[in-house]
Write a structure and sequence with these properties.
Oligomer: single chain
Helix content: over 70%
Strand content: under 5%
Structural class: mainly alpha
Distance between the termini: 27 Å
Number of strands: 2
CATH class: Mainly Alpha
CATH superfamily: MFS general substrate transporter like domains
Amino acid sequence: MEELKKFNTAKFLSFALGFFGLQFAWQMRIILSGPVTENLGASPFIFGLIWLAGPFTGMVVQPLIGALSDKTTSRFGRRRPYLLGGALLSALALWALPNSELITNTVGSAFNILVHPLAALCFAAVMIWILDACVNIAQGPYRALIPDVVPQEQHSVANSYISLAIGLGSVVAAGTAPFLKWAFNYQMPINAQFIMAALAFTLGMTWTCITIKEKKYEPKEEDKKENFNFIQSLKEFFALSPEVGKICWMQFFTWIGNMCMMIYFTQYAVHTVFGVPDLSAVSEAVKSSYDHALLAGTNFSSICFAIFNLVCFVVAIPIGVLSVKYGNKKVHIISMLSMSLAFIGMAFCHEPKFVAVLMGLSGIGWASICALPFAMLSQYIKPGTEGSVMGIFNIFIAGPQVFVCTLVSWFINKCSFDVFDGVNYHWEYTFIIGAICLITASLIAAYVKDKTENAA
């Protein structure tokens, strides 16, 4: 392998811009998929099942695409075709998702077909699955690009720049609509927000693909003949080190906790903080009476996600610097415990200003989650296997989401209570589950032997 040149700040920023666009699109999907699908008739449990798109595509697509990218020898590089292809396909899904009802009705009218009431919801679910699959197509090779082009001693910093891009992308995505409402009294339509995300993803990824040059890769003769074998790759993955298994279990519980907030926070903001009852099965008159509260709750969710990701953006680089000085493990444990503390607070206090402050506190944990587990794992990656290793590692991010999308959503669906205009649900219970899982992940992390800790 050729010796890799150190990245300067400008190159790190160019490298991270594509992830800025990726996270911009993903954040829009997190915030707005709930209101879009609930308006089309999705109950809490159905909403959870639709969210299964992320974990299923993550468990299937990322390992496969990661392994394929390891062996790709196109003139455009190993990883870049997947980065740009995923961005372009995601842009189409981002445009179609908020227009699901219009598209299904238009198709029905064109072919003189009676459209089923749930057709638009099914179409929206398919668009979410396509969007999640395309994000995973880009994300796995993107993480694998770090050991491809960045020197080993800068891996923690590179991952921190990705955290910075995640934070900034999410802040802009979540904060644009509330800012326009506050500054100009203009409520940005949901359709326009999704189109904005499509442009950000495509343009950001294009810039990274143009500015970051991959080293020329020529696979060995035996590598060309070898086909991807998931079971064999899994065995080789865990054979890298005994510490890899611990890191995976840490990641498993981390992402159960993290996704309890990511998936359900908008519903929590709308239904628990602002007291809007479940609108999936009420009359249009009742829906209309809650338009103002629904809009206020959705905007509040966007503001909280903006604060959450702004903190992530601010602390991303300091976390990378502190991890170099004190070791990845120590910094990660403290960050996760701060997030669990914030979750406990949100479970028991629903006052908007307090919730916003706690979301900011949990942003410290998010900055660490986006960077340090990957830096801990990268210490054990063998050259030439970066894509498949990151793809398999993603199973321990995607797998926990299946638990959250099924059992947690089923549990919330059972925890209903009567209100004036129907029923509501105890969405705050998700934060209790999340806090318990984050504390468990911190305990597991304490037993991981971290090479950077010794170096520090």
